[in-house]
Amino acid sequence: MRRGRASALAAMDEGLRALRAELVEARRALAAAEDGRVEALRKSDDADRAQEQLQERHEALQARKAACEAELRRHEQAAAATERAERQATREGAWAREGPETEALKEAKMSLAEILSITDEAQLRARRQKAELQHEIDEAKEENERLRSRPEPAGAPPGGLRASISRLFGGRGRADSTGADDCGGRGG
Asked: Using H for helix, E for strand and C for coil, what is the string for the chain?
């Protein structure tokens, strides 16, 4: 009878050692997974900060674009008014006389052409910057989503830490119900 109890205790002890080793391994895997999660969160936060900076830069460029567009509208209105005045003068047969008026008209047209050219360049730069910023924002969003959707590491044992603990305590509980308490009160 003593040998039966001793062998039962030895078997339970061996089972406990295996479960403890499994628990230690599960804790290591959990720590590695936690490290991976922390790193992923850090990268996600970095991506969020980069996205916020890009968004602020985008908003500043949008404000610049709006100012350029307003200036462009003013120049277009001025050009339209000049063109209307020229058409009216042409219809009425009033041509500018040779001399200072013609020269002033030529200078005004040259100035208008330069201003329109500058506004066109400003619009083109604003469109390009907007496209670049949108591209950077899209890349940051994609990286953020990729980091948030990364799966947990594959080295985790089946069932995880809870299953190991359940097996550890569940195994001891079964042994207790089979008569292990009768061994001199050794319960833990």
From this structure: CHHHHHHHHHHHHHHHHHHHHHHHHHHHHHHHHHHHHHHHHHHHHHHHHHHHHHHHHHHHHHHHHHHHHHHHHHHHHHHHHHHHHHHHHHHCCCCCCCCHHHHHHHHHHHHHHHHHHHHHHHHHHHHHHHHHHHHHHHHHHHHHHHHHCCCCCCCCCCCHHHHHHHHHHHHHHHHHHCCHHHCCCCCC
Contacts by 71-77, CB closer than 8 A, 24 or more apart: 71/119, 71/122, 72/119, 72/122, 72/123, 75/112, 75/115, 75/116, 75/119
- Separation between Cα atoms, residue 181 and residue 183, nearest integer Å: 5
- Across the chain, which has 188 residues, the per-10-residue mean pLDDT values are 84 90 94 94 94 94 93 93 82 64 86 94 95 94 88 58 76 47 44
Handedness of CA 34, 39, 44, 49 (dihedral sign): positive
CA 91 to chain centre: 62
Q: Cα separation of 114 and 119, whole Å?
A: 9
